[in-house]
Amino acid sequence: MAGFDDSLVREYFEMNGFFVRQSRKYAVQSRRKRADEEGDLLVINPTPRRGAELPFQLFSSDLAGLTTAVVAVKAWHSTKTITPSMIKKGDLLEFVRKEAVEAARDAFADLTPREGQSLSKILILPGIPAQEPQRSESITLLRESGVDHVLTFRTILENLVQAVESNQSYAKSDTLQLLRLLRLYDMVKAAQLELFGTNPPAK
Fold it and tell me: Measuring CA to CA, how many Å separate 16 from each of 13, 64, 101, 197?
């Protein structure tokens, strides 16, 4: 299932104008990941909006302010939110280790990023708590660990469902074709799509 989740995130960034490089095609299971295997995707925005102050939790309207980023996808769909205790275990945060960030910078070397571009560390996860004090504690723990931003699967799915056209065939993308069919066969209702046009409540 990890391959599908990575594909979903990749389609999301590409749909929003980013160049995306997948760091590896294989799954690491029987050993600890090397530094260059921690990030799942490397993304670069060819036309970033300068001077944008980005929030910790990103929504699709914020993406224009990103330049380059290493992205870790944590598709723990058995839970809708990540709790402070889950963050403290450290399993989410290997991709922000110094060695992993340096490996990501090396991977970007041939893309000649513009002078002054920074490499953001983005964590894709089901959600963060909506209620205090768990929300503030979760954000503090993630920030202190080196995570710059989080994106939720809800935000990603809403943006993709809104972007696909039911009268287009996405033969080159199984992910977009599936979302297109959900729209074509009214599995996603118009009322839901209207909600997708606005930022959802914080998750």
Answer: 5, 8, 23, 15
- Does residue 31 sit within a domain? yes
30 lies in some domain:
yes
Full-model pTM = 0.77
Instruction: Decide if 119 contacts 149 (C-beta within 8 A).
Output: no
Please state the φ and ψ torsions of residue 26, each to the nearest 5 degrees: -105, 160
Whether omega before 126 lies within 30 degrees of 0, making that bond cis, reads no
Are 25 and 6 a contacting pair, CB within 8 Å? no
169 located within any domain: no
How confident is the model over 55-110, as pLDDT tens digits?
999 999 999 999 989 898 887 766 778 888 888 876 666 766 666 667 766 766 66
As given in the structure block, the two tokens for residue 104 are: 């990501």
Range of the domain at 38: 2-152
Alpha-carbon span 14 to 8, nearest angstrom: 10
